[in-house]
Design goal:
Arc Repressor Mutant, subunit A, alpha+beta, 10 strands, elongated, single chain, Endonuclease, Chain A, three-stranded antiparallel sheet, 2 domains
Length: 270
């Protein structure tokens, strides 16, 4: 019964309203005194709860002495609750969107957000790639996934999904440029994502950076930062759509792209 109360609360009823509604559904009808006994809620709260449920149209009032209260059919009641909930959701969404897009909150978009945990970062990587409309620049995220697969098997499906989304974006006309840190990985990426433009970073293997970056449409950036704990890598990422921060990262990535080497092979075509 606890789960039913929770479900009704999630639809917008209070705990007392849920208990009264369930009591009436079980017993059919009753006076305020009956409902107090059936539901277990305080006598002083019964009339207020009944009034609210009647206003929502999910119970009916019989004007007898004493007055009796009757539950409408559960199907009809839930439909009315859902309709009220949807209306409130739409109203809240409209108001929140107005607040979010208002000039008073533009400064908040300059904040750099921190994302912790491998799963959260993986989802965010896929999310930003899916949002791309014109250009994606990636600096060596794939070795991050490949190395982590050995320790965290769950990463493999995220890697596969990321590859799938990148290929889908290329098919939609989005330019995908990738800076890779090893020839072995570059060959692998060339086969998996044949439409991507690839460059080989000029640093030596022992100078490899421990993270990567994804720049989307020159308007948002996700950078992963890795630290080591024993045999495992712990990931934290930062995300921002702030103009100054993104512009700075874009400048760095474009500079790295220019100094990186064009691979000396013809990528395999599917």
């Amino acid at each position: 019964m606890r789960s039913l109360i929770d479900s009704l609360r999630n639809l917008g009823l209070t705990e007392y309203e849920a208990k009264v509604f369930i009591a009436l559904a079980r017993h059919g009808s009753g006076t305020a005194t009956d409902i107090h006994l059936f539901s277990g809620i305080p006598r002083s709260a019964v009339y207020g709860v009944l009034k609210k449920l009647a206003q929502r149209g999910i119970i009916e009032v019989q004007h007898t002495k004493p007055m009796r209260y009757k539950c409408i059919s559960p199907e009809e009641a839930i439909e009315r609750i859902k309709k009220d909930f949807e209306q409130e959701t739409e109203l809240a969404l409209e108001k929140l969107n107005n607040i979010y897009s208002s000039e008073e909150n533009i400064h908040q978009k300059e904040i750099v957000w921190t994302i912790n945990g491998l799963k959260n970062i993986s989802y965010r990587m896929i999310q930003v790639v899916c949002s791309a409309g014109s250009e994606i620049i990636i600096e060596a995220p794939h070795p991050t996934f490949r190395n982590l697969e050995r320790v965290y098997p769950v990463v493999e499906k995220h890697y596969d999904q990321l590859v799938k989304e990148l290929n889908r974006k290329i098919g939609e006309g989005v330019q995908v440029r990738m800076i890779i840190y090893s020839m072995k990985e570059l060959n692998n990426i060339a086969e998996l994502i044949p439409g991507a433009e690839l460059r080989l970073h000029s640093v030596k293997n022992d100078q490899l950076r421990k993270g990567g970056a994804i720049l989307i449409d020159g308007s948002e950036v996700l950078i992963d930062l890795r630290k080591y704990s024993g045999q495992r890598e712990e990931l934290t990422a930062i995300w921002s759509s702030g103009k100054e921060f993104v512009s700075f990262v874009k400048h760095l990535l474009e500079a790295e792209w220019e100094v990186s080497d064009v691979p000396e092979f013809e990528p395999k075509k599917e």
